[in-house]
Amino acid sequence: MASITTLSDTTYAALIHYLPPHAPQGRRTADLRLRLEAIFHMAHHPAHAWHQLPEHFGRPNTVARFFRRLTHAGTWHRLLKALAESPPNHPLRTIQHAICRVCRRAARLGGLPLLALIRRLDLRAALNGPPWLLPDPALAATLHAIPLGSLQTPGALQTLFRLSRAALGRARIPRSVRLSWP
């Protein structure tokens, strides 16, 4: 069986449509397929830092910079939307787990918009931790819509406070919990 980071021709052809045509500085990427395989490789090894990337993928700083540029360009957002809309036999489905793993790695850079998209599409495998420890934008919006006059009952303010803390998520999630999350 081929390595999980090796992209087949059909998968690569499906994936290429969601990538920006040029790098942000306007140059074409030398070996786009190899860089994508490097990103998927790192996503499957979450405990590894970029400098531990195997040599055959190229310079680690170059791949890490490319990953950040793709994240800021919204590439992973587009791929998650495409996964949600694609039929079960679509070529992207063969690398769905890999795309979800990359989104976990991109969560800090993608911020709350990426997290909200993952929750809305119900792709829990793309969350970088258990949902009950992460911010919940939908709950925050619901709490914001509660009229203040309805908080006259005893304990309502305390309940609202607890719910608002839950909507914010935890400031820090222990590494052991993040790495053990499927």
Automatic annotation (TrEMBL):
Record protein name field: Transposase
Annotated transmembrane regions: none
UniProt xrefs under PANTHER family: BLL5188 PROTEIN, TIS1421-TRANSPOSASE PROTEIN A
Provenance organism: Roseomonas haemaphysalidis
One Pfam family per UniProt: DUF4096
Domain of life: Bacteria
Occurrences of domain Insertion element IS402-like (ranges): 7-79
